[in-house]
């Protein structure tokens, strides 16, 4: 089974290393180990548990990504929905906790 959503990169810096790292950490939480979390962009499907895969998407500000959360067992539905909410919130907030301070740019 798959939960599918469209998320938008809001940061003016796009999906740079810091937010990719946080996204990977969220996706790699132990409670999410039995579900697959993927991002699709421009025909490329990236495992959201891998910083390198996320960075390989080359997503920029305003880019729409497809977030897919896959699970096999109905028992994992609540876990998948929890991951979905956490990841959507990450994108909706513009991953403000991962922003590069202006003085570092």
TrEMBL record:
- Which InterPro entries does the protein's record reference? HPr, HPr-like, HPr-like_sf, PTS_HPr_Ser_P_site
Does rRNA processing count among this protein's keywords?
no
Locate the coiled-coil region(s) and give their ranges: 66-93
Residues forming the HPr domain are: 2-100
Which keywords are on file for this protein? Coiled coil, Cytoplasm, Phosphotransferase system
Q: Where can this protein be found?
A: Cytoplasm
The superkingdom listed in its UniProt entry is Bacteria
User: Can you tell me which family this protein belongs to?
Assistant: Belongs to the HPr family.
PANTHER family recorded for this chain? PHOSPHOCARRIER PROTEIN HPR, PHOSPHOCARRIER PROTEIN NPR
- What's the name of the protein? HPr family phosphocarrier protein
